[in-house]
Structures are given as structure tokens and as C-alpha cells.
Recover the amino acids of this structure.
């Protein structure tokens, strides 16, 4: 009986843990965005890239990640935000994205990495439907962290290129 | 105690298919009247293990069918029946049939038993047992099905039972799983302790099993010991209930005795079990790829060296850096590079398998076809140990089958014709494989009539592939058979020319970055030569520069590279330039414009052109510069991105940068040079060009 009780207890704990997720956030055009930290493989500095012919403009090209060919997406261009020159703070966040039938390693170019927040799932609010913004579809939810608002990305939609 | 048998299914199928392959190979060696007992024994053993295995796993359809086969083989083995050609044919058919049954079972489908039943009837006719025992069995089944019956089972093992590795306790517990089991053990045969041989079995049992299963389930349990014990199973309804209860009491005591006795014998049984488990694990691995132990050992050695080098470098890294450490550091790095290269080569070798895996299917194929065509053919296999990549191997098999069929059907003459031509009545088809440079070469040779150039010419003219006026050498004429649309209706026979022409063979081989060519001499024979890269993972590439981008063109598709002489360029239509190269017109594709790159050289004069060939069409690729040639490891773009038109893959260059590999046929499509739905380029007709 005691064991069963403990089991139940553990389960509840796990469920609580599952509700709270850690998010890595980054800046793009003064806005802060977040991705589930478990999808993040590594953070790299911007480096020279091989262009893929006839690809959409937001696909910057491919890099060699220790023998794996990884495509890099410029998130500014993906969201239709005007591009800026890449600088020393420009980073590439390498993510593992679970797409419909495969998991792919892809990188995103962002202005700068910000912080890691623990966010409970129920704190996230739905995105208000704004007819004039196509970008709303890429955002899974909005959360307030202190004074700031962070947009949590729907990676599947964002990286479905 | 219950074992989940399903975990062994894959092993069973694997072994059975291997057994069938062995049976097939041996059957093909059999010549009626001069068979040797070893061959028959091998076939018999293969059949026997398939029967045993399928019985154990409950694949009764296979077990029953193999049983008749085995009976026939047993009689032949004992010499009580002579082997005839009919037997061999029937046995070969059964091999096919069994293979189909097992495939169906492996795919968890209901096997189609019609063919098996037909073959079984034939076997039973030969054996003279039709309508005897086999018919009796099914009658029993309906009676026992779905109703609860009690069986009396008398099980009297022979003394040597334990030595065969069988453990009665397992069988008893299996029986107990079928239903209510009452056990009675007889110990009257147990001798005095001084005479007791601990490895012998002196006990016998009587079981009463109340179950809804039928008798065959019980027989199945005792299947492995039927030769080592006297077993009688009788159906006795529910009558024995009371008596069983009475006899149950003494049985417990007997069983304890029995256990003590068995303690002595158990180690032996257990050792056998362990070894059985071992052999299964090795077989499970073989479902994917079979690697020679020497290859694995050499890998382990290399990893060992790598670890040592790494340890050395770590140690150096911890020291203070002086002149001396730098020298040894450089030395260590050189060693690391060496180790890595060795390791890479060895890992590549793991994917290599001897070509005998492909060759082994041909003896049967040649036998069947030559019988059908009534030709006498001898098949020679050479260089069976030549190794090539597993992926290449899987894909080369079908084109080879097609070529061999062609040789048999069209190449080799009938016996009469051969005799008339003063040749050996038995025709020869030779498959030969060898390494040449970085390629593997497979030759398919026959000593038949050779290609009929006049006929090919006529056919090509009729199909509009060449014109009456074209003056072609014999070799050029022979090459025509690889063109799409050459295969014509009057060629269609059961064997070749069923719409899968030689053009498909060529296309399949080219898809593997290989090539195929033919040489032929009238009356002497023809030879098809297939050249393939050793592996699909590595390719020889020519690095080229387009604007600031580096691309790789597969060396195998490059014909030549040249500087454009502007006087030989003419413009066709709105924006297509063609270069007159000797007697051909080569369309010029501007790589920078197809790939949308800015900053490349756009003028044609004196610019470099790489002439490549794909699907029998030559095109010229305009590039800024030719860089080095090197071997590159092919990486997939699709793994993390998607298919890119005009690009077949990517690779990583020595400096760590990614470079894309150009896909020639994709480029042609991308450029819109080819009419949609057609194999031909838009600028095909020479006459048109000359007019313009």
C-alpha cells in the first residue's frame, strides 16, 4: 500500500513537472520569443554558409554540423521582418524539430539569445486572432514574464518549409 | 514457465530461408542416377530442420508439407527409392512453394495452400500413400475441436533421453498449459542406487490431460522426442476423472524423487540450452548484414589504436607547451589522421559483401530457362568473392537477371543450330566479377550467335532511331539496343522483351552511377560489361566554381572540359546557345542562371564548359573555374531539409565547408531543355539546327 501511495505521489509530481517547461528565449527586432529548451541542440555563432540554389529567401543555406548537413533559416525573413546585417551577437540556435513524419535538425538565425524561463503551461495565453498578421500562426502562445511578454514559437509550423 | 516463441520467429524464418537456399543449390547439383549420399543428406537435413522448426512454432501448414517431402528424401537416402529427374523437379517446385509459404507467414498473412496441396498430392502419389494415413487425420479433428476431452498419454522415454538434450519437465509443464493435467510417474524401472547411471532416464509417465485443444497440440509437444520415447495418446472422454484423483497422490512423491535424480543431469541440459541461445543471437544479427569476424576484429584493433593515440594527445595537452611537445603533438596528430583514415576504410568495408550473394540465384534461373527453351547451357561463375557495397548489390540483381535472360533467350542457339555451326552443343554463359581501379566490373558473357547487327540496324531504322543514311560502325549499331523504344513487339517472348527493354537496364545501372556496354562478334558470342562504383557512399567529383559557390560534378558523367570557341556557338530560339563540338551540337546550360547566382562570368567566349552526359544526352555546363578533383563522401540533404532540384546531395570539403553535388538529369529537367513527357531534348534534330 505504501509503495502504491508513493507511486501515486511520484506520478503527481511528474505531472506537475510536465506542466512547467523551460524555455530558451531570444530577441528578434526587440521582441522576445521562446522555444522549448528540450528541442535546443546547441547554440553557435554565425558562420559561413553554403547557399542552396532556388530556395526561399529565409533559407540561408546549409552548414556542416560535425558531419551532418543542417539547413539554417533566418527567422527575421521567415516572419517578414526586415533583415539586418549579421553581427557578433547574431547566433544560430540549432533545434531538433519534430515534423509530421520525421525529426529534423535545423538551425535558426536570431538577433541574440536572452534567457531561460520556467513557464507553466497554463500560464500561456492563446494568440489573439489578428487578421492582418500572418505571423500569428507561428506562435503557440503568449506568456508574461515580469514586465515582458514572450511569444512561444510553434516550431512545427515555423520550420515546416 | 512459458517462453514467448514469437521472439524467435525471425531467426526461424532466416534459418529456413537459408535452408531452402541450401536445398535449392544442392538440388541443382543432383544428377539422377549419379547422386552422392552427402548431397541427399544435406537436402534431407535442410528439410528436416524446416519441418522441426515450423512444427515448434506452430506453422503446421509448412510442417505437414515438409513432412511428405522429407519422407521421399528419406527413402532416397536409404536407397529404397531411386532418384528421378521428376523428383528433382518436384522438389525444386516444393522449395519455391515453401519459400512462398514462409514469406506469407513472415508477413503474418494467411498462406495460400493450393499449390502446397497440389504438390503434396503429387508426393503422396509417388510415395503410394495417397488416401492412407493423411486422410485419416482430418477426420479426428472435428471430433476433438471445441469440446473438452480427456487424453491419456503414456510417455515412456528411452534411457538416452537426457543425452539428446531433452527435458521431460519442460514437456510436462507445456502439457499443463494446455489444460488440466494429472500426472502419474512410474519409478519401477529405476534400478538400485549402485546400478543407477545418473545420465539415464528410468522414469516413465502417464498423463491425463483434460483440454479443449486437439490431439495435434499434444503431438506437437512430443515432436522432438518421438524417436527417443514410446508415446501413446488415446482419447478417453471424461471418464477417468475419479481414477485420476486417486492416482494423483502418489505422483507427487515420485516427482520429488525424480527431481533429485534430475539434478545430476541438469547441468548437461543447461549447457545445451546456453549454446542454443548463443547460436540464435548470432543469427539475429545476420538478418541485417553478415560481417566477417576478421573485419570486426580489425575494427576493434583500430579503435584500440585510436584510443591510445587519443590518450597520448590528452597527456601532451596537459603538459606545458614547449618546442619538444609541439613536435610530438604534431606527430600525434599525424597518427590520429592515419588512424581515422584506416578506421573510415574499415567501416566502409563492413558494407561490402561478396558478389556471390547475387550470383547464387543464377544457377536456378539458368536451369529453369534453359529447360523452358530446350537449350543446353552451362553456367560458369567467376570472381564470386569480389566484394561490393550492399546497396549496390541489391540494385544490380534485377538488371543482371535481365541480361542473363537475354543471353539465354537471344544469344545462345538451340542445340541443332550449335551443332550445325560446329560448336559445342552445350552453350556457356559466364558471369565474371572483378575489381578494376575504383570500380567493380561484372561481365556477362555467352558463346552464342552474337548480336545480329543487320537486324538491329533494320529495326532501328524502322523505329526511327537512325536514318537509312547513317553510317554506323558495328559497335555503334550494338549500342542502339540500349536506346529507349528499341525493344519491339515481335521480340516479345515469355522471357525477354516484355516491355522492360535494355534501356531500362541501362537506366537502372546509370542510377547507380555505373555504365553498361556491349561487345559482340557474330557467331562467337557477346559480352555485356557492367561497371559500377564500389560504393554509393563515396564518389569521385570534379569541383567547379560558379560565382563564389563551389559545386561538385560527378566525374563519371563528365566527358570533357573545354574553353568555348565563340565562333562555334549558335543561338537557337530565344535564349538557348548550342556549341558545335566536332559533329555534335551541345546545348549550353548556364549553371549560374539555373541556380540563380549573381556575379558569375556571363560571356561565353573563352569561358569553361564542362561537357557531361546523362540519359544518353550530352549537355555543356558553363562554369567559372575548374578546381580540384577529389573523392567526396555523399551526405543527404533530405535528412534535415528537402529534395533540391538539380542537386543530388551534399558533401563536406576538406576545409569543413558544405558543397552541393550537381544532379545532371535533374538539371536538364530544371532547365526546361527537355520537352515535358519526352526523353528527347528540345533541340534534337540536327537538320533543324543546320538550317538555322
Amino acid at each position: 500500500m505504501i509503495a502504491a501511495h508513493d507511486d501515486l505521489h511520484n506520478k503527481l509530481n511528474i505531472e506537475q513537472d510536465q506542466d512547467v517547461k523551460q524555455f530558451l528565449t531570444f530577441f528578434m527586432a526587440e521582441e522576445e520569443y521562446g522555444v522549448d529548451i528540450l528541442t535546443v541542440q546547441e547554440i553557435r555563432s554565425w558562420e559561413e554558409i553554403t547557399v542552396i540554389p532556388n530556395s526561399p529567401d529565409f533559407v540561408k543555406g546549409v552548414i556542416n554540423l560535425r558531419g551532418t548537413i543542417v539547413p539554417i533559416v533566418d527567422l527575421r525573413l521567415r516572419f517578414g521582418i526586415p533583415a539586418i546585417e549579421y553581427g557578433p551577437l547574431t547566433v544560430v540556435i540549432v533545434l531538433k524539430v519534430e515534423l509530421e513524419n520525421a525529426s529534423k535538425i535545423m538551425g535558426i538565425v536570431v538577433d541574440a539569445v536572452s534567457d531561460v524561463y520556467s513557464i507553466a503551461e497554463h500560464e500561456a495565453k492563446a494568440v489573439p486572432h489578428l487578421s492582418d498578421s500572418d505571423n500569428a500562426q507561428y506562435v503557440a502562445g503568449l506568456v508574461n514574464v515580469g514586465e515582458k511578454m514572450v511569444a512561444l514559437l510553434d516550431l512545427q509550423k515555423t520550420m515546416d518549409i | 514457465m512459458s517462453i514467448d516463441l514469437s521472439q524467435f520467429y525471425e531467426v526461424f524464418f532466416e534459418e529456413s530461408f537459408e535452408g531452402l537456399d541450401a536445398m535449392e543449390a544442392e538440388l541443382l547439383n543432383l544428377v539422377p542416377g549419379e547422386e552422392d549420399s552427402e548431397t541427399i543428406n544435406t537436402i534431407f537435413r535442410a528439410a528436416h530442420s524446416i519441418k522441426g522448426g515450423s512444427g515448434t512454432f506452430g506453422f503446421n501448414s509448412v510442417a505437414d508439407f515438409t513432412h511428405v517431402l522429407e519422407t521421399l528424401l528419406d527413402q532416397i537416402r536409404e536407397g529404397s527409392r531411386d532418384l528421378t529427374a521428376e523428383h528433382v523437379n518436384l522438389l525444386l517446385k516444393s522449395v519455391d512453394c515453401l519459400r512462398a509459404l514462409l514469406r506469407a507467414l513472415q508477413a503474418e498473412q494467411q498462406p495460400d495452400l493450393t499449390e502446397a496441396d497440389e504438390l503434396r498430392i503429387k508426393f503422396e502419389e509417388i510415395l503410394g500413400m495417397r488416401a492412407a494415413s493423411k486422410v485419416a487425420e482430418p477426420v479426428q479433428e472435428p471430433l476433438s475441436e471445441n469440446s473438452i476431452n480427456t487424453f491419456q498419454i503414456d510417455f515412456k522415454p528411452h534411457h538416452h533421453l537426457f543425452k539428446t538434450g531433452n527435458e521431460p519437465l519442460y514437456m510436462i509443464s507445456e502439457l499443463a498449459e494446455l489444460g488440466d493435467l494429472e500426472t502419474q510417474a512410474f519409478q519401477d524401472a529405476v534400478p538400485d542406487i549402485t546400478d543407477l547411471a545418473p545420465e539415464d532416464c528410468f522414469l516413465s509417465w502417464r498423463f491425463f490431460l483434460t483440454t479443449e485443444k486437439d490431439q495435434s497440440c499434444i503431438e506437437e509437444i512430443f515432436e522432438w522426442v518421438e524417436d527417443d520415447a514410446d508415446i501413446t495418446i488415446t482419447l478417453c472422454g471424461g471418464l477417468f476423472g475419479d481414477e485420476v484423483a486417486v492416482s494423483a497422490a502418489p505422483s507427487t512423491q515420485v516427482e520429488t524423487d525424480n527431481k533429485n535424480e534430475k539434478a545430476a543431469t541438469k547441468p548437461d541440459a543447461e549447457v545445451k540450452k546456453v549454446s542454443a541461445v548463443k547460436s540464435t543471437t548470432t543469427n539475429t544479427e545476420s538478418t541485417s548484414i553478415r560481417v566477417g569476424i576478421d573485419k570486426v576484429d580489425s575494427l576493434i584493433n583500430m579503435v584500440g589504436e585510436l584510443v591510445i593515440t587519443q590518450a597520448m594527445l590528452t597527456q601532451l595537452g596537459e603538459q606545458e607547451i614547449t618546442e619538444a611537445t609541439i613536435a610530438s603533438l604534431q606527430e600525434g596528430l599525424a597518427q590520429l589522421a592515419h588512424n581515422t583514415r584506416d578506421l573510415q576504410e574499415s567501416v566502409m568495408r563492413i558494407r561490402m559483401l561478396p558478389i556471390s550473394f547475387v550470383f547464387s540465384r543464377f544457377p536456378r534461373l539458368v536451369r529453369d530457362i534453359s529447360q523452358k527453351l530446350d537449350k543446353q547451357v552451362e553456367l560458369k561463375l567467376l570472381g564470386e568473392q569480389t566484394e561490393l557495397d550492399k546497396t549496390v548489390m541489391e540494385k544490380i540483381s534485377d538488371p543482371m537477371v535481365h541480361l542473363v535472360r537475354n543471353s539465354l533467350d537471344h544469344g545462345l542457339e538451340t542445340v541443332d543450330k550449335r551443332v550445325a555451326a560446329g560448336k559445342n552443343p552445350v552453350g556457356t554463359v559466364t558471369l565474371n566479377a572483378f575489381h578494376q581501379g575504383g570500380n567493380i566490373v561484372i561481365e556477362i558473357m555467352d558463346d552464342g550467335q552474337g548480336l545480329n547487327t543487320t537486324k538491329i540496324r533494320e529495326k532501328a531504322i524502322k523505329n526511327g532511331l537512325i536514318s537509312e543514311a547513317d553510317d554506323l560502325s558495328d559497335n555503334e549499331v550494338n549500342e542502339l539496343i540500349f536506346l529507349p523504344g528499341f525493344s519491339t513487339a515481335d521480340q516479345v517472348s515469355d522471357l525477354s522483351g516484355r516491355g522492360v527493354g535494355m534501356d531500362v537496364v541501362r537506366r537502372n545501372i546509370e542510377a547507380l552511377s555505373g555504365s553498361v556496354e556491349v561487345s559482340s562478334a557474330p557467331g562467337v558470342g557477346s559480352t555485356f560489361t557492367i561497371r559500377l562504383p564500389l560504393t554509393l557512399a563515396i564518389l569521385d567529383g570534379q569541383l567547379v566554381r560558379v560565382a563564389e559557390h563551389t559545386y561538385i560534378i560527378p566525374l563519371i558523367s563528365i566527358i570533357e572540359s573545354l574553353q568555348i570557341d565563340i565562333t562555334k556557338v549558335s543561338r537557337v530560339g530565344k535564349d538557348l546557345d548550342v556549341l558545335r563540338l566536332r559533329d555534335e551540337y551541345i546545348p549550353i546550360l548556364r549553371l549560374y542562371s539555373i541556380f540563380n547566382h549573381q556575379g558569375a562570368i556571363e560571356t561565353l567566349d573563352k569561358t569553361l564548359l564542362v561537357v557531361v552526359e546523362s540519359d544518353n544526352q550530352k549537355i555543356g555546363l558553363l562554369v567559372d573555374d575548374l578546381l580540384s578533383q577529389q573523392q567526396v563522401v555523399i551526405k543527404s540533404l533530405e535528412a534535415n531539409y528537402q529534395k533540391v532540384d538539380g542537386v543530388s546531395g551534399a558533401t563536406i570539403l576538406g576545409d569543413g565547408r558544405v558543397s552541393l553535388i550537381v544532379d545532371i538529369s535533374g538539371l536538364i529537367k530544371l532547365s526546361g531543355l527537355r520537352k515535358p513527357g519526352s526523353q528527347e531534348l528540345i533541340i534534337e534534330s540536327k537538320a533543324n539546327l543546320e538550317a538555322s
